[in-house]
Specification:
alpha/beta, eight-stranded parallel barrel, 14 helices, 38% helix
Length: 370
């Protein structure tokens, strides 16, 4: 798969996930297999205003090539300035734009998956991003639309292709679905048919490497985006490497092997954050994902989430039943799911899809994410 001048093999992208895809997690996944590994989402306004935390979030490791950054923005001028900064200051090699976030605090201000409904505003943002990114490829990630009555992905895909976007990724759910229900892979096929001139990547319900192969076969998409499927399973990237290379081999780690990966993950987070207590606190949310399906007592799980040093982490991990085999039930969905009753939108947002009014600055604050 080619994105701009970059050859991406296997044709796999790690989806940006807030609080997850920091340099530590990206390093862990890269150690398992190849692909394109994207940073956590950052706001274009925070980048332009040089917020210190934002610059911490876009650090990359010495081996990360290409360096991929995801920007979120609602104002064409600000997005353009951010893209120019990334290019001129050599902050990254690839820019991805987020138009898929379904989190209420984002959509209620006109951002994320709400924005493509304003097709002229979308076009203006993409035009500014591409024009200011120079030689850097610009891609977008989006959803099908706001809900089944307000689908936007086909128009958005065509606009992206017309404005010089290098690739489009579709999470085949609406904002209303959030992470519930089943991803509509047929939508990925329809998008590929609509914009055959650029790569289309499919996202949604890829829990195993075989799911990825099936999505490509069924939709004709050029590659896949993996998000929740790799939570607690960074070795999924090894499986994807094997699968796209034609190998039937798949990783089925024992609990001992999972424990070793947990320790490695915790070590990387402590190194990146620069503090064992803070790194281990950040690791807590990963414990349940790693142990899903394994027979591990509640007290042991609690102990692993309350360690205060890496030495203690290693001790607790060593107490796990190292020979316990990989449980079949661990292959299924992970992370929160469930539909929303409604999508939060600005007042009158659906009245005029051609309206070019730019959402206010509060739609792009440093805490936006999802």
């Amino acid at each position: 798969m080619k994105i701009g001048t970059f050859e991406v093999w296997p044709p796999v992208v790690l989806a940006p996930m807030a609080g997850i895809t920091n340099i530590g997690f990206r390093t862990l996944c890269r150690e398992q297999g190849g692909g394109l590994f994207v940073s956590e989402m950052i706001t274009s306004r925070a980048l332009v205003e040089r917020v210190p935390l934002t610059f911490q979030m876009i650090r990359f490791g010495p081996e990360e090539r290409p360096r991929s950054i995801q920007l979120y923005g609602v104002d064409p001028a600000i997005v353009g300035k951010a893209a120019r900064m990334v290019a001129e200051e050599d902050l990254a090699d690839h820019i991805d734009l987020n138009f898929g976030c379904p989190v209420p605090k984002v959509t209620r201000r006109g951002g994320g998956s709400a924005l493509p409904y304003k097709r002229n505003l979308l076009r203006a943002i993409l035009r500014e991003a591409v024009a200011n990114a120079g030689p850097l490829p610009v891609t977008i990630k989006m959803r099908k639309g706001i809900d089944d009555d307000h689908l936007t992905y086909l128009d958005a895909g065509r606009i992206a292709a017309e404005e010089g976007v290098a690739a489009v990724a579709l999470h085949a759910r609406t904002a209303k679905q959030h992470y519930g229900g089943t991803a509509d892979w047929d939508a990925v096929k329809r998008l590929k048919d609509a914009v055959p001139e650029i790569p289309v990547l499919g996202n949604g319900d890829i829990w195993t490497a075989d799911d990825a192969l099936r999505m490509v076969a069924e939709t004709g998409c050029d590659g896949v985006v993996v998000g929740r499927g790799c939570l607690g399973r960074p070795w999924l990237f090894r499986d994807l490497d094997l699968a796209f290379g034609g190998s039937p081999e798949r990783t089925r780690p024992t609990l001992g092997e999972v424990a070793a990966t947990m320790v490695r993950h915790a070590e990387l987070l402590c190194e990146v954050i620069g503090s064992e207590p803070h790194g281990l606190a950040d690791f807590r949310k990963h414990v349940g994902w790693y142990l899903k399906g394994f027979v591990v007592g509640a007290e042991t799980r609690r102990a692993l989430t309350t360690v205060s040093s890496l030495a203690e982490m290693r001790e607790r991990a060593a107490e796990l039943d190292r020979d316990q085999p990989w449980p079949a039930e661990a292959d299924g969905p992970r992370g929160k799911s469930g539909e929303r009753a409604k999508v939060m939108l600005p007042h009158g947002w659906l009245d005029d899809p051609d309206d070019m009014t730019v959402p206010g600055a509060d739609a792009e604050d440093a805490t936006s994410g999802g």
